[in-house]
Design goal:
The complex is a heterodimer.
Chain A: H1 7-25, E1 37-38, H2 43-47, H3 52-55, H4 59-73, E2 77-78, H5 87-91, E3 98-102, E4 105-109, H6 120-126, H7 128-141, H8 146-178, E5 182-187, H9 192-199, H10 201-211, H11 213-232, E6 244-250, H12 260-266, H13 268-280, E7 285-289, H14 297-300, E8 308-312, H15 317-323, E9 327-331, H16 335-340, H17 343-356, E10 363-364, H18 379-391
Helix pairs in contact in A: 1-8, 4-8, 6-7, 6-11, 9-10, 17-18
Chain B: H1 9-20, H2 27-42
Classes of the chains: A alpha/beta, B mainly alpha.
Chain lengths: ~400, ~45
């Protein structure tokens, strides 16, 4: 068990853990051991017999679940503290987009998107905030009057405040009581992601790539005024005080829709801007690459060494280590094995990866796919793998 | 239903912001929270 620490112990531990990570990412020296990062979403609730319908509406329960998860497994950092899905916030708008079941435990999102083909010029002209306020909010939630909209927005802002308070509380608790640094201090999202995760959905975005090419570019420039503006309000001033690993992160997901040629036009200009910023400010960055990034590697191969980490979901970690020596690999350990394998098989896989991907000490352990499903991970397998990796001195 | 005519940014933004935000918050914080509220209402992966 990895119990809560005293204030002094936590201060010391969080700095030691951050230094361990930075030894790897900055390639300062071979680390003492492999740093361990949890790539767990909601499996921690399943592991503790907490119903999704309860946990996802009760921040005290979530907070306790994350603390117990840390006490059980003793990770050096976490990819998620159950903050990815703002369920209670979304529900407060009166038309829930998340569908939760407890038997089996699942969380899914409805495939409903309200932006129409003909809305592109309005989005480009108004910018994302004004566009959603005027054109999308009432249409999407079917508010028939201003009063109805205000009534729901009042509830929603209270839920957003509760969500923000939970985030601040759990990040603080992990640093101050468990000595666990946060993975990043901030983040930037590419504007193309907005089409898939709210405006148009997968199917329409795919069609728009052929039907509305130039309008999409104009719309992304409008969206990015907010995204980049918000990022610039704090990112240049980030200074690592020893409580986080990477300065910032980005989580590309919708890029998997794009061919390399489309990626170059619809995604790379914004991604490159972000990477250039990171290099110019001598910062570090973490890419949580959802899906497979294999056919986009050519774009990443020339980035500066000693500042970028990448978590892989579907790619072969051995191949990525070979083709992206300028990146620190995070993860690649198969989540399916943690769920379906035996303890022996799981430890053997960890031993194999110590040879195939950690040959130079430039690997951060994590599992490939976000664990959020029943049977996704077996407790004894995860404990055995972590125990083994902690025992190996590099 | 012409949903696009219910809210007008120039006419309604400030009024709604003042109506729904906590009173003890600075105007700068209210504006930032209001913007996030509106964006997150539709964009889920942020």
């Amino acid at each position: 068990m990895f119990e809560k620490l005293s204030k002094a112990e936590a201060e010391k531990t969080v700095k030691e853990r951050t230094e361990l990570f930075l030894d790897v990412v900055r390639k300062r020296k071979k680390p003492d051991r492999v740093p361990l990062v949890s790539n767990d979403g909601l499996w921690k609730l399943i592991d503790q017999d907490i119903k999704f319908s309860e946990g996802l509406h009760d921040y005290d329960t979530l907070h306790e679940a994350v603390c117990k998860y840390q006490e059980m497994y003793g990770f050096d950092a976490h990819a998620d503290y159950c903050v990815l899905n703002k369920v209670a916030f979304q529900e407060s708008f009166g038309k829930p987009r998340f569908i939760i079941t407890d038997e089996p435990p699942t969380l899914s999102i409805t495939d409903t998107f309200s932006m129409k083909d003909e809305d592109y010029p309005a989005l480009a002209e108004k910018g994302i905030v004004k566009f959603i306020f005027e054109d999308m909010l009432c249409r999407h939630y079917e508010y028939e009057s201003k009063e109805e909209a205000v009534e729901h927005l009042k509830k929603a802002v209270q839920e957003l405040i509760r969500y923000n308070e939970y985030c601040g509380r759990i990040y603080g608790t992990m640093v101050e009581e468990y000595g666990v640094p946060n993975l990043c201090a901030g983040g930037y999202q590419m504007p193309f992601e907005f089409f898939v995760s709210g405006l148009r959905g997968l199917k329409n975005t795919s069609l728009d790539l052929r039907r509305h090419k130039e309008e999409m570019i104009e719309a992304m420039e409008a969206i990015d005024e907010r995204l980049w503006g918000e990022f610039m309000s704090y990112a240049p001033y980030i200074e690592n005080d020893g409580t986080f690993v990477f300065d910032t992160y980005t989580c590309p997901m919708a890029y998997t829709l794009l061919s390399p040629k489309q990626f170059e036009k619809f995604y790379w200009p914004w991604m490159k801007k972000y990477f250039d910023f990171v290099a110019e400010h001598d910062q570090t960055a973490f890419i949580y690459a959802e899906g497979a990034i294999k056919n986009k590697l050519e774009f990443l191969q020339d980035l500066e060494d000693k500042r970028f980490g990448i978590l892989l979901e579907q790619d072969d970690p051995v191949e990525i280590r070979e083709k992206l020596p300028n990146f620190t690999l995070m993860g690649g350990y198969p989540t399916t094995l943690l769920g379906e394998g035996t303890v022996e098989q799981c430890v053997d896989k960890a031993k194999e990866m110590m040879e195939t991907v950690n040959y130079d000490g430039n690997w951060i352990f994590s599992f490939d796919k976000l664990a959020s499903f029943e049977g996704g991970v077996k407790r004894e397998n995860l404990l055995a793998v972590l125990d083994y990796l902690r025992s190996v001195k590099l | 239903m012409e949903y696009e005519k219910i809210l007008n940014y120039e006419r309604d933004w400030e009024e709604i912001k003042q109506a729904i935000m906590p009173e003890d918050m600075s105007d700068e914080d209210k504006e930032a929270l209001m913007s996030n509220l509106i964006v997150y209402s539709i964009i889920t992966n942020t």
